[in-house]
Amino acid sequence: MKENRSNRPVIRPLPVMDRARQVTDALADYVEEARLQAGDRLPAERELMSALAVGRSTIREAIRHFQALGVIETRKGSGTYLLKPVSRATIHMPLSFDAVHLRDALLQTLEVRRGIECEAGMVAARRRTAKDLVVIEEKLNEMERVHLEKGTSGPEDLAFHLAVYDATHNPLFRQLLEQMRETFERFWEHPFDRQDFARRSFPFHRTLFNAITAGDPEAARAETLKILDIVEEDIKEMSK
Asked: Could you report the per-residue pLDDT of 211-222, keeping only the tens digit for each?
């Protein structure tokens, strides 16, 4: 009796590995194998493009990741320099949690986001400079423009929150987000296939900015909670 092939599980093709992640790993391996130390110069952008056979945008994305982690700096007209030695083991912090269902994964990551983002908003309200406020407002204006045009603004929303993190002048906030982003984005990109997910939180980004501008940490915390409370409501409503 022949096996019914229609009942056999499908073996799906492997996803293409993210090119920027590959470049990041390759650079970390190079730093470790070359035994580079703080103050040593990394290969030039053009040299990396040729050696790794990738485009300029991919190299720059990997460099931005290292900058966010605080391990390299780019000096205008001079090059990119190592601030501290790294290895592949130190540039990635794999996150894992036992969440079979999307709803559970979203609620679990939301708990982590609530703690980090509320604190970041409060610290930003205390420490922001005039320059920080200009950058945050630029990101907010772009987020609002895209949102009104398309009804959604995921990348622009992230850029706004990153600007708030930078205004804390504590590099660990951005570093934590960069380390967690890959895991978070698996679940947070158009959850439930709903473009309107968390759309009701849109106006509170402006009021969060106003609280940070006013230097009011408690107001910044309250506005952040309004955003995240709406996110939680939508998770529970849309997962029914």
From this structure: 999 999 999 999
